Amino acid sequence: MPKTIALVEDDAAIRENYLAVLRAQGYHVDAYEDRPSASRAFNANLPDLAIIDIGLKEEMEGGFLLCQQLRNLSPTLPIIFFTARDNDVDTISGLRMGADDYLTKDISMAHLLARIAALFRRIDLMRAPKAQNDETVIGELRVDASRMTVSWKNEPVALTVTEFWMLHALIKHPGHVKSRQQLMDESRMVVDDTTITSHIKRMRKKFIQLDAQFDHIDTVYGMGYRWQL
Predict the structure, then answer these.
(1) Average pLDDT, the chain
(2) pTM for the model
């Protein structure tokens, strides 16, 4: 049975473009142009994944309200914020509300489809019995690549899919510098340097919230980033 995706986007041309691409991939897509119509639909029946624009018609933060509603209805339903806005405040606000990832509208369709597939894969893996050990342990860090989960000092770290693969790239060879291009390649994203920097900042903050002394994600100016032992 095809997965159901809810697409909440107020721009008709963009909405139709995404609809065509997602349906061509075999997904069942329900599209909504504003928060009230999406909200009513979510109360009646939950999708398998939601892609939500932040600004919806006259509601500049309507997408945040929908995310809160969905999180109250389901703690695990994958949510992607999809927006023309790319500033750190919006991103952090969205992720704190429980979104799984945050993508700007200038990313490629291939990148969007890869993110959707990765989120579905993570949900399926979390539900499946654990069949093999695919963990990497470095000091207090534990990364399970098969389930896409991370813990620090036995506390879970809620990374987005993008952040997970960037961290995974950094810990493959601890102490070795990964360039921004290498991080983009590993996480299957094509973005500018500022966006990479924002992802790294958010990842650091999540670890620091658990451990104020955390200092293992090191910036090597002019070169990239590394996991410092």
Answers:
(1) 84
(2) 0.66
